[in-house]
């Protein structure tokens, strides 16, 4: 079943003078099936973050529409957006975006508190999640007291605790060393195997090789995509590297 | 380009680039300097009024303003340097040596100091001119004040503020040089631990505050009010600081522990936000609270004093002319004094009314329990005024009970609790309180323990007189008291003509004591006293308003600083919350409840302090003969109301800056 459908998305950043308008996205269309794990790659400045922000309804597209489940997110009213985001989307950011004044536990609870869930319900939800992510012993610590990898796991827990339809991740391994990255990517694989849909923006070929499908964005359009199919992770890694080289040398698109 | 010019250019760029933080700092400097200069040049003004009280009061205000300026500049500077540390750390990493940084800081301070001093003194001169106009209006000076430019005031201001700037400069340099570049860079990022509740401090603060309140509530008379007021103020200040620093955290922690309360969308962010805020700003909030209380108390009492000035004069001088002959020179003094008054009356054609006279014996002795005697070294002093019944009746226009018992002392009025039986100079006396409502003009400006005693007859009077003479003759270095004579009367003429009579009268009575020793005369004309007093209360009001406005501005600036600093701290938090799914209106309401609580808490506490201070203030004012409690309460209430309005206006202005930063 198709979970997310993106149709002819365009985004133009306008400046006050209008002289320096930037067309970050030209015409982006793709769809994501339920339970899929999709990575989006592209050069710096190709519009990945822009795309993700629009998917996350943090920003509005200039043109085009997005359908999540069977709701057109581009039509949701401003005042309902926050609740929609809270209940349907989970976010993992490069710089974690944890609040310094909350313990990890309270950070994870934040979306549930905003939804008005009872405390006992929150406790019930966090227990298995913390165990799975291996942060049970860190819950009462503050963000500055734990490592980057641990912070990112807490951020993942915060994204998962609402049981979102889809996890949106913008360079989740960007601030992590390779060991912490591996651990996070394995975690993503694990939750994906349990049925969680994931859409991840990344620069890292290694991170992308974990996904089931990789989309390449260039000049504001989806330029190319590869499916993992039955390939091993190493073969996938090789394939992605080749594609990136072709892209960089200005090769033709091939599907 | 020379090196120094380069530094100046760089320092100037730094200042303009950080204008958001420097403008309020310069504003603070400039306002405090203006205040200080104006006050200083008032003191140096050669044609200030003849009454020394005004000059004294102003002189009292100066150190207060100076100390306050210093504290305040240090406080605002601390915000500034917290921000600037990062920048200097960056310079250091980019290869600037510490001595270069030092030079840079020195030049920056120099620029700030020069700008502030020029603005402050320039504006001070302008304000001074306006203040003279205002002062002439409020205080009815007999000769209007003339504005004059005072160079010594300028010099003194420059030197004294230079000290403050140098102290701040040293503090900044030490602080910047103390830290390593890496630390400098992470000043902002380093996490802060959640504050711990400090129960000892909380309990201590609570006890201190309650003790202060209890002193005020249980205060019974002017004497205790004067002696205990300072203690009560100190206790309340200590209590306020402790409770703002630790008490608020304790309360928030308790709320946080209640999971079902804490994990609600409208409490979650604000409780934890405030918890951290309190750690940084407990002192700032306590400052605001104390300053607000000072403003309200100061203006409230001075307004009461000013408004009650007429009452005071009427109570103190129950007739238009009051003359006291200290020490009875001869047997016929009463008659002589009477004749002088009526002779002048005949000569000037101005009629005398309500002529009244009395003789009084004032004895001062030490007290040990119920024992009053001459030689009690270090004992608390008590003053007795002895009156004969006829004198007391005619003078205060009242009727005493018939057949007073011989040998008994009757209380006409007392500022303290007199025992039922006393020993006076070794002889026992029975004491009966006549429960008279305090007669006008009696003991209105006496702060120490004193008691007006009506002696039933000539015989008892003589017994006591002999006793005191004997007692004091046996005590070294003491003189026995001699009776005084008071003569009061009204004049039947216009206020202007009163002087015609009074000038002649004064000359005539002075002739009476010329050439005698140890005898003198004190004589007052009510309208002259009223003018003097208006000058006194006027300068009080002026000083009160002046300091009040100063503290108010300080409060406003602290609020502004807090808003800016907190705005930058909160910006990121609210961005994250929005990303996680908090909608704009929720963010707004969270910010609102947090900011409202933080800003109006000090005001509420200040009002609470004021409420509890009222009893002691009322007694304190009674020492100035303000006995109209209703008037005091109304003056204080109006002051509170006006202050609340100003506070709200300042709040709405400064919070706009905050919202702008956060959004
Ligand atoms: N708020 C904005 N206003 C104007 N232009 C913007 C804005 N945000 C992004 N852009 C421009 O849009 C283009 C795409 O930016 P985007 O951040 O989406 O790139 P990206 O693919 O995420 O790059 P990176 O891999 O470096 O993060 C860039 O040219 C950028 O300069
Ligand atoms: Mg990006």
Walkthrough of the structure:
The complex is a heterodimer of chains A (255) and B (663). Chain A is α/β, with parallel strands linked by helices. In chain A, 37% of the residues lie in helices and 25% in strands. Chain A has helices at residues 48-55, 78-88, 104-115, 119-133, 148-160, 178-193, 205-208, 233-248; strands spanning 2-13, 22-33, 37-42, 63-68, 71-72, 89-92, 166-170, 197-201, 213-218, 221-227. A 6-stranded mixed β-sheet of chain A has the order 6-7-8-3-9-10, sandwiched between helices. In chain A, strands 2-1-4-5 form a 4-stranded antiparallel β-sheet, with helices on one face. In chain A, strand 9 and strand 10 form a beta hairpin. In chain A, helix 4 crosses helix 5 (148-160) and helix 5 (148-160) runs parallel beside helix 6 (178-193). The relative contact order of chain A is 0.17. By secondary structure, chain B is an alpha+beta fold. Chain B folds into 3 domains: 1-190, no CATH class; 192-319 and 520-663, no CATH class; 351-492, no CATH class. Chain B has helices at residues 3-17, 19-44, 52-93, 98-138, 151-178, 181-185, 199-218, 222-257, 259-262, 265-307, 309-316, 333-348, 389-396, 458-473, 495-513, 526-580, 584-622, 629-662; strands at residues 321-326, 351-368, 371-373, 380-387, 408-414, 421-424, 427-433, 450-454, 484-492, 520-525. Chain B has a 7-stranded mixed β-barrel. Chain B is elongated and about 95 Å long. Chain B starts with a helix and ends with a helix. Classes of the chains: A alpha/beta (255), B alpha+beta (663). The A-B interface holds A 56, 58, 78-79, 81-83, 85-87, 91, 93, 97-102, 106, 109-116, 118-119, 122, 142-145, 158 and B 190-194, 259-260, 263-265, 268, 272-273, 275-276, 573, 576-586. The structure holds adenosine-5'-triphosphate (ATP) and magnesium ion. Magnesium ion binds at residues 48-49 of chain A.
């Amino acid at each position: 079943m198709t979970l997310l459908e993106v149709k002819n998305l365009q985004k133009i950043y306008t400046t006050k003078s209008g002289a320096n308008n930037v067309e970050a996205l030209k015409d982006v269309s793709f769809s994501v099936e339920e339970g899929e794990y999709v990575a989006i790659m592209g050069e710096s400045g190709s519009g990945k973050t822009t795309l993700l922000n629009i998917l996350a309804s943090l920003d509005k597209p200039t043109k085009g529409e997005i359908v999540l489940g069977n709701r057109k997110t581009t039509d949701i009213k401003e005042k309902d957006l926050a609740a929609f985001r809270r209940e349907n989307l989970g976010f993992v950011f490069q710089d974690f975006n944890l609040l310094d004044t909350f313990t990890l536990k309270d950070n994870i609870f934040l979306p549930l508190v905003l939804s008005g869930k009872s405390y006992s319900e929150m406790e019930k939800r966090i227990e298995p999640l913390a165990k799975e992510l291996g942060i049970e012993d860190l819950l009462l610590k503050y963000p500055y007291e734990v490592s980057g990898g641990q912070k990112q796991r807490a951020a993942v827990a915060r994204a998962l605790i609402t049981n979102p339809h889809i996890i949106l991740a913008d360079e989740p391994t960007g601030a992590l060393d390779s060991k912490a990255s591996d651990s996070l990517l394995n975690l993503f694989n694990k939750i994906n195997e349990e049925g969680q849909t994931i859409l991840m923006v990344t620069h890292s070929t290694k991170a992308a090789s974990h996904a089931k499908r990789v989309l390449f964005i260039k000049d504001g359009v989806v330029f190319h995509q590869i499916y993992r199919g039955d390939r091993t992770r190493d073969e996938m890694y090789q394939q992605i590297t080749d594609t990136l080289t072709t892209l960089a040398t200005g090769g033709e698109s091939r599907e | 380009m020379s090196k120094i010019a380069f530094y100046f250019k760089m320092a100037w760029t730094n200042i303009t680039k950080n204008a958001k933080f420097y403008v309020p700092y310069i504003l603070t400097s400039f306002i405090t300097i203006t205040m200080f200069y104006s006050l200083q040049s008032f003191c140096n003004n050669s044609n200030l009024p003849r009454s020394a009280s005004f000059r004294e009061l102003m002189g009292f205000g100066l150190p207060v303003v100076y100390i306050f300026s210093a504290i305040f500049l240090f406080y605002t500077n601390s915000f500034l340097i917290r921000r600037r540390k990062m920048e200097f750390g960056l310079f250091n990493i980019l290869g600037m040596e510490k001595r270069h940084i030092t030079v840079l800081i020195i030049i920056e301070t120099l620029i700030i100091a020069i700008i502030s001093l020029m603005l402050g003194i320039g504006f001070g001169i302008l304000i001074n001119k306006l203040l003279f106009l205002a002062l002439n209006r409020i205080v009815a000076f007999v000769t209007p004040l003339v504005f004059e430019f005072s160079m010594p005031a300028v010099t003194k201001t420059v030197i004294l503020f230079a000290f403050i700037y140098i102290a701040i400069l040293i503090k900044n340099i030490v602080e910047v040089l103390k830290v390593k570049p890496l630390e400098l860079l992470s000043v902002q990022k380093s996490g802060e631990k959640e504050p711990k509740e400090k129960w000892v401090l909380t309990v201590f603060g609570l006890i201190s505050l309650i003790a202060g309140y209890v002193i005020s509530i249980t205060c019974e008379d002017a004497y205790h009010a004067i002696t205990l007021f300072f203690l009560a103020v100190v206790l309340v200040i200590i209590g306020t600081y402790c409770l703002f620093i630790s008490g608020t955290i304790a309360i928030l922690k308790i709320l946080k522990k209640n999971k079902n309360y804490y994990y609600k969308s409208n409490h979650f962010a604000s409780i934890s936000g405030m918890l951290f805020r309190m750690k940084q700003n407990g002192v700032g909030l306590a400052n605001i609270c104390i300053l607000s209380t000072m403003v309200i108390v100061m203006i409230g009492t001075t307004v009461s004093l000013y408004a009650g000035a007429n009452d005071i004069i009427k109570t103190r001088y129950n007739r238009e002319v009051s003359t006291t002959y200290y020490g009875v020179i001869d047997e016929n003094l009463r008659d002589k004094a009477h004749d002088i008054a009526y002779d002048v009356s005949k000569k000037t054609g101005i009629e005398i009314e309500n002529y009244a006279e009395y003789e009084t014996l004032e004895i001062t002795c030490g007290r040990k329990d119920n024992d009053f005697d001459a030689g009690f070294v270090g004992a608390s002093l008590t003053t007795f005024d002895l009156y004969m019944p006829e004198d007391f009746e005619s003078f205060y226009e009242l009727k005493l009970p018939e057949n007073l018992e011989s040998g008994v002392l009757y209380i006409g009025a007392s500022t303290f609790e007199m025992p039922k039986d006393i020993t006076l100079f070794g002889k026992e006396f029975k004491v009966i309180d006549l429960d008279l409502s305090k007669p006008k003009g009696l003991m209105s400006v006496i702060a120490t323990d004193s008691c007006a005693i009506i002696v039933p007859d000539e015989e008892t009077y003589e017994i006591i007189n002999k006793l005191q003479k004997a007692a004091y003759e046996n005590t070294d270095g003491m003189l026995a008291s001699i009776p005084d004579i008071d003569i009061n009367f009204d004049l039947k003429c216009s206020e202007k003509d009163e002087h015609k009579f009074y000038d002649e009268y004064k000359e005539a009575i002075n002739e009476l004591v010329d050439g005698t020793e140890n005898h003198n005369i004190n004589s007052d004309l009510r309208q002259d006293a009223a003018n003097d007093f208006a000058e006194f209360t006027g300068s009080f009001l002026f000083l009160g308003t002046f300091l009040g406005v100063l503290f108010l501005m300080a409060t406003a600036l602290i609020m502004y600083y807090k808003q800016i600093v907190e705005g930058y701290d909160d910006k990121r938090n609210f961005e994250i919350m929005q990303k996680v799914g908090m909608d704009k209106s929720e963010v707004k309401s969270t910010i609102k409840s947090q900011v409202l609580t933080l800003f109006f808490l000090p005001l509420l506490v200040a009002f609470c302090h004021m409420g509890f201070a009222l009893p002691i203030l009322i007694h304190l004012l009674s020492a100035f003969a303000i006995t109209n409690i209703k008037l005091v309460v109304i003056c204080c209430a109006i002051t509170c109301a006006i202050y609340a309005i100003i506070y709200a206006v300042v709040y709405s202005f400064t919070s706009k800056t905050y919202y702008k930063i956060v959004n």
